[in-house]
Amino acid sequence: MNRRHNKELCDKYPFLKKYDWLGNFIGYDSTWEDSLPEGWKKVMCPQIWEDLKNILVKANFLDRFRFHKLQQKHGLIYFGYTGIGEGANAKRLLGWDNKYSEMSSYSCVDCGEEVDYWDLDWEEFVCEKCAKERSKQHPDSIFIKKSDLVNYQNASYIEKKKYYIMFNQKGE
Ligand SMILES: [Zn+2]
Predict the structure, then answer these.
(1) From ligand 1's centre to the CA of 10, what distance in Å?
(2) d(CA 72, CA 79)
(3) What is each CA distance from 160 to 115, 146, 164, in whole angstroms?
(4) Which of 13, 17, 52, 59 could form a cystine bridge with 89, CB 3.0-4.6 A?
């Protein structure tokens, strides 16, 4: 993404600007949107920023709100931020957090389609098509069906083996 695009994005959504640890604006080489995996970008943007902006404008916190983290954690989107105060404002923002956290739980990080598998090494949810694509790049990749995930977590080491799915088994 180029700087002009990033500036336009930040003019519209000022909370996407990045700052260094001293609080100095670092310029338009990157924005917080770059922290989202491609698949999530596809299904969430720009609605995620539009929703956030509405909350912040209503609360009169648009100038004060800043991200300090926006990442993927255990397969879900995770936000760290400051400048929203407490009470009703914080509560509204929590609703926003939850909405997009839920969306991240069923959207493939690579393409945005509905997820089928958990990539054990990368700790990410992916769809079947992308799981197979990843297997081509990394033949040792191990996946677990999303519906088996709870059972997998509770299984013993030996039992765990039966939940493994590898798409590039020899002879295929
Ligand atoms: Zn996918």
Answers:
(1) 28
(2) 9
(3) 21, 14, 7
(4) 59
